[in-house]
Write a structure and sequence with these properties.
The protein is an alpha/beta fold. The protein has one domain: Vaccinia Virus protein VP39 (Rossmann fold, 3-Layer(aba) Sandwich), CATH 3.40.50.150. About 35% of the residues lie in helices and about 20% in strands. Strands 3-2-1-4-5-9-8 form a seven-stranded mixed β-sheet, sandwiched between helices. The longest helix is centred in the first third of the chain and has 16 residues. The chain is globular, with a radius of gyration of 21 Å. The site of S-adenosylmethionine (SAM) has 21 residues, from helix 1.
């Protein structure tokens, strides 16, 4: 682990100990399978709505602290949860034990998925956390390796323009904390995470990944982008000049859906033939 991962791991353990929403499953899913599926579809913003989960191999990437991995498993997917923070993982592990839900739990940095085999997953669901690594392309490359042909990667992160504009209200308008072309962590004025009565100091290191970098990383990893979204969690706004107010003018998040193309039948036949050919025949070509 590098210093960014070490730092953000400490911060996420701290946030989990304080119990902010991203570290606690929100709401209560119904028991009925169809209603449970609707609950998951709302949680995942409808991005995987038409996918039948039964029998799918799902990686819930950086998915600690929430319902997603539990619901994937309870809806019939062979589920692996991967996250950096032991505390975030412990929350899901305890929930799984309480509900009798079976899933695999693995701790690590999303930039290194080497413990997983090539083509091990059919779906990688990755919600709001690329922002915590400087090198998003490395994650996308790793995901492409562990994704099976025909598999799908759905990920979201902070909007690269809006993230550079929080906390900059001057009284008459917003400014920028950083140029769009800079790649260092976005500077913060305040490191306080505030949700209702809960306030916790946690200066996580956050990186505002440009759209072009994310899409081109998918292209380089041979993933085909087939969906792109920009949205804010609510349109109610807040005090003029607040971050909530800014999010009514600009989106808070972006999400991308990308697929690893299925291998064409002719290519699959050629590869199978090459595998079954005697070694000497291969060498003589
Ligand atoms: C915003 S929370 C998302 C949690 C939950 N999936 C949700 O959507 O409510 C970000 C998660 O990313 C994890 N995380 C941060 N950096 C990571 C890294 N380098 N590798 C793996 N997980 C990481 C944190 O531990 C945390 O659980």
């Amino acid at each position: 682990m590098d210093s960014v991962a070490e730092h953000n791991q400490r911060m996420w353990d701290r946030l989990a100990a304080a119990g902010i929403p991203y570290t606690r499953p929100q709401g209560t899913p119904p028991n009925d399978a169809r209603a449970k599926r609707r609950f998951l579809d709302e949680l995942t913003f409808g991005r995987i709505k038409d996918i039948a989960l039964r029998g799918m191999r799902v990686l819930s990437l950086a998915g600690g602290g929430g319902w997603d991995p539990i619901l994937f498993a309870e809806l019939g997917a062979e589920t692996t949860l991967f996250d950096l923070s032991p505390k975030q993982l412990a929350t899901v592990r305890a929930l799984a034990k309480e509900r009798g839900t079976k899933l695999r739990v693995v701790q690590g940095d999303m930039r290194d998925l080497s413990r997983f085999k090539r083509s091990e997953f059919d779906l990688v669901y990755h919600h709001h956390s690329l922002v915590f690594v400087p090198d998003a392309a490395r994650v996308i490359k790793e995901v492409a390796r562990v994704l099976a042909a025909g598999g799908m990667y759905v990920f979201s992160t902070m909007h690269p323009v809006t993230l550079r504009m929080y906390e900059t209200w001057t009284g008459t308008g917003w400014g920028f904390k950083q140029r769009y072309f800079e790649s260092s962590p976005v500077p913060r004025k305040s490191a306080t995470w505030e949700f209702g009565d809960v306030r916790v100091e946690a200066p996580t290191l956050e990186y505002a990944h440009r759209f072009s970098d994310l899409v081109n990383a998918c292209v380089r990893a041979k993933l085909v982008v087939d969906g792109l979204w920009e949205w804010s969690p609510n349109d109610e706004g807040g005090e003029p000049g607040s971050d909530d107010d800014l999010e009514t003018y600009l989106p808070a998040y972006i999400a991308i859906r990308a697929r690893r193309l299925p291998v064409a039948a002719s290519t699959a036949r050629r590869r199978a033939a090459a595998r079954s050919r005697p070694r000497s025949a291969k060498r003589s070509r």
